[in-house]
Specification:
The structure is a single chain. With about 350 residues, the chain is an alpha+beta fold. It has 3 domains: about 20-185, Orthogonal Bundle (Arc Repressor Mutant, subunit A); about 190-250, Orthogonal Bundle (Arc Repressor Mutant, subunit A); about 260-355, no CATH class. It has 15 helices and 12 strands. Helix 15 (about 330-350) links the parallel strand 11 (about 320-325) and strand 12. Helix 5 (about 80-105) crosses helix 8, helix 5 (about 80-105) crosses helix 10 and helix 10 (about 190-205) packs across helix 12. The protein starts with a helix and ends with a strand.
Length: about 350
Amino acid sequence: MAFDILNARLSNQRLTGTPLASPVEVVSWLGAVQAQEYDQAKWALAMRSRRPSAAAIDRALTDGAILRTHVLRPTWHFVTPADIRWMLALTGPRISKAMASYNRRFELDAAVFRKSEQVIARALRGGVQLTRQELKVALREGGVNADGVERLAFLTIQAEIDAVICSGGRRGNQFTYALLDERVPSSRLLSREDALAELTRRYYSSHGPAQIHDFAWWSGLTVGDARAGVEMVAGELATEVVDGRTYWFGKTVRARTTPSRAYLLGLYDEYLIAYKDRSVALDRSQWTRITSGDAFLAPVILDGRVIAGWKKVAREERTLLRVKPFAPPGRTVSSAVAEAVDRYASFSGQDLEFVWQ
């Protein structure tokens, strides 16, 4: 039997087989979960955990059991308190390098960041949690120019990268920031070599089978670092060559137990976003065709392959969930997608009207 990359990924990402006990365990298992689209990132955790609820994930964020910060690539991710410090130490310098051109455009340098982080730390000291706009006021009062959406964003991003702040609790629909030292009083520190080995181990166990360039993309590290990480933990990994490409993964791949199951993925679900090469699961030409008029369709997968895009559209009385397929759906596809919509509706608590577009 040919090596089944999609089956193994579905299993290792916990979309099939036994779900993890809680959303916190999902974040820990995956290492980091891209999370700028908060509601869809919550759904990513829910799909992989046992009897989850949106409220439970909100509570985990409020309580600090799950943190949201800029780590790995320069975007928001969910991470656990146990992992945040060593991950920031490992990937923070690469994020700063990626942000350098933007910082120069807004005349942000080490001196500005040193002052802004002092002001931010003073404003948040004592368990205070503030929104970005409230931090803007504090920065102005502290003599730091925080005018403009982008300049303010880059000031807070650098404070996250420098391990000064991380997410606080949600205040209504708004995110707040808190001091990392108060949110996570202590957590393990790793040498750079140990951190690289741990991130490599975590990625290939939870996201494999994957190539070295996939790991470099996901982690934000260099290809050289990715290769070094694989060399460090090669004895813990298995490997397969498929169509001339080398894939690495944890030695134990759980058996798939749910055939022909469809999933509504979020825009940035780890199932696709974690790989530079997505060709195994995604026909790029088909995807480009159906998203040409709407770049914000999220993927629908069946048996591990993308077969359609989906999007919610608000209506006065109820929300419409539109699914745009690559090809006219037959009975099996229609039934599987309808079940996926029901699972999503149950999690979101919304009255959804499902239609094929």
